[in-house]
Structures are given as structure tokens and as C-alpha cells.
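INTERNAL AUDIT FORM
Audit reference: QA-55
Scope: verify that the stored structure record matches its stored sequence.
Auditor: D.O.
Record contents follow.
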Amino acid sequence: MKKTAILFLLALAMFSCNKSENADNSQARTEAALDVIKTRVSVRHFTGEKLTDAQIDTILRAGMSAPTAVNKQPWAFVVVDDPETLMLLSDTLKSSRIENGASHAIAVCGNLQKALEGEGQGYWVEDTSAATENMLLAAHAMGLGGLWVGVYPISERVKSVSEILGLPNHIIPMCLVVLGYPNEQPEVKDKFLQENIHYNKW
């Protein structure tokens, strides 16, 4: 009986210790994730150093981990690292800052052949937007800089980017994610405003 009690107390102590460690780990993960979200900024100047294929793969996997309506995953990604193509995109999208030493640009596109039918088709915009934010957060967590450059719904931008990248008609460029090693440290902005929050009703 005494032996059983001792074993029980040892097991309880180990459980309590593991529970405390798990709580600490959970808190650390929470703080790390929230720090990445709160400190992400738009980077417009880069060092010119090239990102690796593994880094790009990690960013793409983060993008495709985003939520998507009915799990349709109506997205497609065009990874651009060819200098000539990057400059064409830079000339077309002056706000992209690609010429400022960016390593890559990833065109995040909607695939209308995978989108929902009817009124729900427009959810591809939300799905690709979620993927884009995931990619930007992943890049920031990796110590990289990123910039979201809007394309859709400006028809002139959609047409130009589609032509440069040779996109078929059912693939719509939603935005570019410009990536590279940051050569600046933009100020982090606190965008929280209590006035934007309403509970239950307006």
C-alpha cells in the first residue's frame, strides 16, 4: 500500500511538472505568434541578397495553410526571380518597389476553375487574401521583408500583370508579394482603435 502511494505521488509530481512545462511552452508560443503579428511591417527597401528555394518553399507552404471557403483552395502562385521579369513588373506596378533590391515577387492569383459557383465565386478574393497575409507573416517570422502590392480589382493592373506572366484567362492576379532581406527598419504602428469595435450590435 505504501509503495503504491509513493508511486502515485511520484506520478502526480511528474504530471504537475509536465503540466507546468506545457503551460510555459504554450505561453511562449502564444507570445511569439502575437509578436510576429504585431511587429510585421511593409518593407520597401531590400539588400539585393537572394532568398533560397527552401525559404520560398516555406513561405508558399504558409500561404497554402490559410483558411479557404469549402476548402476549394482557389489559388495559384507564380514565383518570379528572373531579373528581366521583375523589372517588367516594377515598371508596371510603380508601388511595388521591386527595383529596390527585392529578391523575389510572388503573384498570388485566383483560379476561377477552382472557385465556388454562383454568388460564392467571389470568395476567391478572401481566400487569396488570407494566403497573402500568411505569407507575409511567415516572411517576417523568418527575418525577411515583404510588401503586399495590390493588383485586383484595378483592370489595368490585372491586364498588365496577366500579360507579363502569361496567365490564362481563368487565372486572376490578386496581388504581388515582394520579398527580400530588409534594408530598412520601418516603424511599427499600433493600429488598434477601440472605436472600431462593436459588441452584439452597432
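Auditor finding: record pair retrieved intact. Strands lie at 75-80, 104-111, 145-150, 171-180.
Action required: none
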